[in-house]
Amino acid sequence: MVRGRGYLAFFVGICLTAWTCYFVLEEQQKLQVRAGFQRDAEKVARDTQNRMQIYFDTLHGMRGVYAVNDRIDRLHFHRFVTELKIDRRYPGFQALQFVRPVPEAELPAFVERVKRDTSVDAGGYPNFHLHPASVRPLHYIIEYTEPLKGNENAFGLDLSALPQHLRALELGRDSGEIVATERITLVQDASGEPGFVARAPVYRKDLPLGTTAQRREALVGFVAIVFRMNTLMREIVDPSLLEHMHVRIEDAGLQTGQPPAPDVDTLLYDSDGRAESNQERADLVPGLSTSTVLPVGQRNWIIKFEGRAGSRYGRSQLPVVLIAIVGVVISALIAALLVVNRRESVARHGLEFSLKELERQKSNVEEARNDLSRVVATLKQAQTNLQTSEKMASLGALVAGVAHELNTPIGNSLLTASALGDMVRDFERRLKEDGGLKRSALESHLNDARKACDIMSSSLTRAADLITSFKQVAVDQASGHRRRFRLDEVMHDTLATYAAQLRRASCVVTVDVPADLVFDSYPGSLSQVLSNLIGNALLHGFDGRESGTLEISARREGADLVMLQLKDNGVGMTDVVLHKIFDPFFTTKMGQGGSGLGMNIVYNIVTSVLKGTIRVESVPTQGTSVTLVLPLWLDEELLQA
Question: How many CA atoms lie within 13 A of 54 on its CB side?
Fold first, then answer.
């Protein structure tokens, strides 16, 4: 009977110890392994997005040169690419190209002109020919490719005969935006590796570009960057990280179209070099996977990540072993204590021995409790280290984003200034050689110089605006002018500034804001929040739609709070975008001028200056709702918080 109770106590203690070990293992999986894996996956996705942005900015710079002079010959193109030195700084691309549209009737003269072109190679290109040979009204021919060595097979390639390229060319021509192709096999690559091409259309200067027909009429050609995916990703992703993580990139098709079913033709990159997505991988950690959507040149890429078993994403066994040992010891001590206590009640002569045994057991229990306390302290320290790592990672991303965003407009200004310098030196040479210039030549030079100045002015203005936005991210709580104001008046003034844009977007705005909502706060900061939210609805919510509806309402919440809601019926957001909406430098308009600071500024102003809260709810294709809860007045405790 006595031994049976001891065995029961020991069994219960072992069960509790096993449950504690399982709980610790699960917490490790949740806090350490998954947090580290998610941080690595976000870094790879962020590095890929930043690198593609740099290459697309290079395309924008090349378009800027054509905007100054749309008659760039082979020599100028060669010098421009050489001065970029992009192959030294970011060597993940295959070639830079220029594609020229050539009508069928002009094809013989075009081929002969290329053969006699000795501006770069003194021997010309006597073997130049169009391939594959075809008869069609309009040909799209690769005329310039840098470097030519290693890309000879692409020289003279007729893209109009290749459906994958032709679809991307026609979409870029009609939209005026950078367009990437689907997965292709490069003609200059005998290995058959996946690749793709990003192209930007170039139009004649001084011609209108408001409609599709006008853009087709003004088309000069396309500037392009050619990539081999394996080469690109080797340059972006740290090879040591791929020892612990499997990365796979699928092409999800055009952003405006229906996503294709994943297969070999949509696979852009696999870090294991596997062609099939369903192959078994015994080294992967079950449940340790994530994915993200990356917009690239009017297409969506789906990047999938899977963690491998190993030291980076493994579990530490030391806390579990310590808990198991301590649990077994405590269970044994309790069982022994029960047995001893029962025996003490039977035999009085064992009282002294039992007291000594109890003291020893108490000491062991105290020691076991101390061991458990040290284990808990170790787990808390690990959690603190993880939080610190997350903060440092966010700070690194912010600094990298600031440097990258400023590099683009300043780099464009430097490129345009270089082109302007070349034009001035050419003008001086012609003036000295000819002894005089015609009025038309002088007017043409002045016109080109004026456009170059406009490009530099707009780029530097963009840089100044970015610096102002960066300052706004860290909003000074003491800045601005505080006064009493009515919410409906601020709303009316803000909507008045957007009246023309709302009319152009065919957007119907309904406002339900009572006139008795009087704030004692910062009207300038509140107006900036409203402007950013309305601007986001126009830029993102109604993108691709002919009309829309924006509902603005406000009502009092209790005695000193107001709930302000802005709701649209736009395209909405996915869970991935909604999760990152307040992150600095996150934008879905990559390559289209967006800096990704708008909603981050809104969050800082609402929480730091206005002392309120903000909540965003959205469903794809069903619109977005932004809810602000703001205090009617700011007391001293809120301002000092």
Answer: 20
